[in-house]
Amino acid sequence: MHVQSICDAIDIPHVETRWDFQLQRADMSINLFPRPSVLSQAYVDLVKIWGWRSFSLVYDEHEGVIRLQDFLKEAQINDWRVQLYQFRPSHAYRDIFWRIKSAGESRIVLDVKRDTLRTVLKHAQQVGMMTESHNYLITSLDLHTIDMEDFKYGKTNITGFRLVDENNADLQGLVVELNTKWSGAIRKLDFPIKTIRTETALMYDAVQLFAKALQDLDGSKSIYFPNISCDSGLRGLDGSSIINFMKPVSCDFSR
């Protein structure tokens, strides 16, 4: 938020690639991450298609409540039976799954950080909550980066959304390049790299988007950016033009 305010004050384009629940954005900022309300509605629509009438919402961070709030609103409208659970740092994840199991619930919407997702699923497995009668909707957009080998034999229905196109030629080339350059620096557990996280892919797209905006703007005028500091009082002369070129752009970066 602080960086966004500074960029807005001195006309420097500001590009984000992360989940952000703010409805209003500064004039000099764009965010390539899907709009939270649109993403939340997609999850709710999927639950409606499945015909879930009762399920558990499980989250770890406080922001999870914001991401899951549309489920709570829809629960009141559609008379769904929804239970809300939060993982606590001082308790094992399996404690929550024991409570869900005792309640007889088999449908779970899971909102946890990517780095803890596999551990959370292992704890669910340990208490018998990863069988063919269980259904999980994972809100993380990085489910495709998790090794799911240990869970596929239980025939659990695990569903998530993905933005990264793993068939994209640029992505495949990037993965090959990373494996070649980092082979000696990456832990064997993490090697070879097979895909990339969503935020990394969005950062790549952000660079491509910025480059295209510069190219398009350069075709209509000479671009000039003075040396700027927070104390100089100078503003980026073409910052507004660049951000205005970036906002409406729609293109295939794989070409």
From TrEMBL:
Residues 3-249 form the Receptor ligand binding region domain. Keywords: Membrane, Receptor, Transmembrane, Transmembrane helix. One of its GO terms (cellular component) is membrane. It is found in: Membrane. It comes from the Eukaryota. InterPro entries: ANF_lig-bd_rcpt, Ionotropic_Glu_rcpt, Peripla_BP_I. This is Glutamate receptor ionotropic, kainate 2.
